[in-house]
Amino acid sequence: MNSLDKKLVVITGAASGIGEALAHVCADAGAYLLLADIDSQRLKTLAAALTAQFKNTGTSQRVLTQSCDVASEADMHALAATASLEFGGADILINNAGVALVAPILSGKLVDAHWLMDINFWGVVHGCRAFASQMHARPDTVIVNISSIFAMLSLPTQSIYNASKAAVRAFSDSLREELRVSVNSDDAGDKHSIHVLCVHPGGIRTRLVEQARLGDITAMAADTDSLNQQFKRIARTSPEQAAMAIMQAVSKRKTRLLIGADARVGDFFYRLFPARASAWFAGLLRRQGRNGRSGN
């Protein structure tokens, strides 16, 4: 991975999981950090750990934190204002904040569906809109939007989650073209292109399922414990591995990244059998759930 020396990396959902791992990876590469999360206490703990890391290496403190709800457009504009005021603007924006919902679409609560879409999709939109103008003014900037392999593969009880991640995928593809500045265009001026990377992780060992809102989950698991165990069986990739892969993709200016063997296999089957891949994957998870309940 290329050096991020004195580059400002803004990370939402930074207090745990992939976001926390990204903060450490970027710190090791010399980046300045602006970390945002709705969980201000965990964010303070992370900031303290990073500050200690900087002191141990003899470098000055390069991290700011800000409590932020990505579902709030005002919060995201406030975060962008901090980036501009304190650092002169963002070089890399990572829209990482996300939540999960496991519930059938017909019996699930619509308020939960709106809650998830406000964070997983509108949070990404708010971030891109808030930061684009300052990033257009800087060279070599990158926006990273975290989608999922479930943008391609859809599962029972996860229709809203699937929809949110598919929306991020489509939004990122369109945004990439909108933020591409032609040097020959009449309105180019001093504007620079903003590169857009869309990331599709498979199972990552995070607290996503533990923190999910749950409805009737019997289509996928017998109970909450079974659901958590099922997730742990398929979540083979660590947050640290995911973070390294993301930042390597940023340095190589990739437009699309699949993380984990499960994501690569799932994407392969989706492209080969688009009408059957979701049914195949759902059946595989059901069999794993039955095997887990029987003790195999």
Look up the CATH topology.
Rossmann fold
Write out the CATH superfamily name: NAD(P)-binding Rossmann-like Domain
Largest sheet: 7 strands, parallel
CATH architecture: 3-Layer(aba) Sandwich
> Overall pLDDT, averaged?
88
Count of domain modules: 1
* CATH class wording: Alpha Beta
What characteristic shape results from the CA principal axes?
globular
Strand content: 5-15%
The DSSP helix count reads 10
Helix content: 40-55%
Radius of gyration: 19 Å
Q: pLDDT below 50 for ≥5 consecutive residues: which ranges?
A: 292-296
Estimated structural class = alpha/beta
GO molecular function, one term: oxidoreductase activity
InterPro entries: NAD(P)-bd_dom_sf (IPR036291), Sc_DH/Rdtase_CS (IPR020904), SDR_fam (IPR002347)
Organism: Undibacterium pigrum
Pfam family, one: adh_short
Structure summary:
Belongs to the short-chain dehydrogenases/reductases (SDR) family. With 296 residues, this protein is of the alpha/beta class.
What this model shows, in words?
- The chain has 296 residues and is of the alpha/beta class.
- It has one domain: Rossmann fold (3-Layer(aba) Sandwich), CATH 3.40.50.720.
- Helices cover 49% and strands 14% of the residues.
- The protein is built from ten helices and nine strands.
- The protein has helices at residues 17-28, 40-56, 73-87, 110-120, 122-136, 159-178, 224-234, 239-251, 261-272, 277-294; strands spanning 8-12, 32-37, 63-67, 92-95, 101-102, 141-146, 194-201, 213-214, 256-259.
- The strands form two sheets. Strands 3-2-1-4-6-7-9 form a seven-stranded parallel beta sheet, with helices on both faces. It has a two-stranded parallel sheet with strand order 5-8.
- The longest helix is centred in the middle third of the chain and has 20 residues, at 159-178.
- The protein is globular, with a radius of gyration of 19 Å.
